[in-house]
Specification:
This protein has a single domain (12-150), classed as Peptide deformylase (Peptide Deformylase), CATH 3.90.45. The chain is built from three helices and eight strands. It has helices at residues 26-42, 124-136, 141-144; strands spanning 47-49, 59-64, 67-80, 83-87, 95-101, 104-110, 116-122, 147-150. A hairpin with a 7-residue loop joins strand 4 and strand 5 (95-101). The N and C termini lie far apart (31 Å).
């Protein structure tokens, strides 16, 4: 497919709520493929949301411990616990921050066939889903961070 340039802070698309995907079409499959290719090309990322490649659509991909997740119109339907840890973002290069998030989440969305998918995640995987779904709302991790620091 295609590797896109990752949109960085300052681009207004990162601050806008993404549009719901109303119909699963071949273009939605291509979007998921392009997100995956772009994430893999980044080498350091563990998740990517469509707005990060300049597309205002509610789609995310996550790669964690040999598992690969792709979700259309994902929503967090339940949260448990609270933990603070360091986060970074491909769209905010050179910056890390301490962000408090839920320890466990349940995420509901659609797969590329339009079937409902429910994922129970905890720990780092739960953090990734929350981070990527925030992107769909126009929220960056630096908006939630308690401490922000620059790194080289």
């Amino acid at each position: 497919m295609a590797v896109y340039q990752i949109v960085e802070t300052g681009d207004e698309i990162l601050r806008m709520p993404a549009k719901k995907i109303e119909k699963i079409t071949p273009n939605v499959g291509k979007l998921l493929d392009n997100l995956r290719d772009t994430l893999e090309a980044s080498e350091t990322g563990v998740g990517l949301a469509a707005p990060q490649i300049g597309i205002s659509k509610r789609a995310i991909v996550v790669s964690y411990e040999e598992e690969y997740y792709e979700l259309i119109n994902p929503e967090i339907v339940s949260k448990e616990g609270e933990d603070t840890d360091t986060e970074g973002c491909l769209s905010v290069p050179g910056v890390l921050g301490e962000v408090t998030r839920a320890v466990k989440v349940q995420v509901v969305g659609l797969n590329r066939q339009g079937e409902e998918v429910k994922i129970k995640a905890e720990g780092f995987l739960a953090r990734i889903f929350q981070h990527e779904i925030d992107h769909l709302e126009g929220i960056l991790f630096i908006d939630r961070a308690e401490k922000i620091r620059r790194v080289e």
